[in-house]
Amino acid sequence: MAEMQKIRAGRHCTFAMHVHLVFVTKFRHKVFTDAHLRRMEEIMRSVCGDFECELVEFNGEDNHVHLLVNFPPKVAVTKLVNSLKGVSSRRLRQEFPDLVRHYWRANKLWSGSYFAGTVGGAPLSVVRQYIEQQNRPG
């Protein structure tokens, strides 16, 4: 939970924004092994880094994955999601030819939809601390 309270700072704002994402495989096919999931976490961590986001937690099963991402206000969640799904699908297909048999119909790994939920919020003590710091001379 300490990770959730980590406050980040940009040039003009201070923020603690997290989104819980869930991606489900196309047709809910059970395609992922532990090796697929380990590599997917690395790929998704890298994509998050490209967006100046942090992959705080990653977990998955044979037909879906969960991500908890700390993201800055300038990042549009839809753009992050499109990149996460697109890059992971492309790289996994290249690196694991055994997945190709699950692509025969739509040539896509992921369902077109996804779940995104905001997580947490700053405790009042953190908000109060921020406001008090703004009143101090620079």
Automatic annotation (TrEMBL):
Pfam families: Y1_Tnp. Residues 14-134 form the Transposase IS200-like domain. Coiled coil: none annotated. It comes from the Bacteria. PANTHER family: TRANSPOSASE FOR INSERTION SEQUENCE ELEMENT IS200 (PTHR33360). This is IS200/IS605 family transposase. It comes from Streptomyces cylindrosporus.
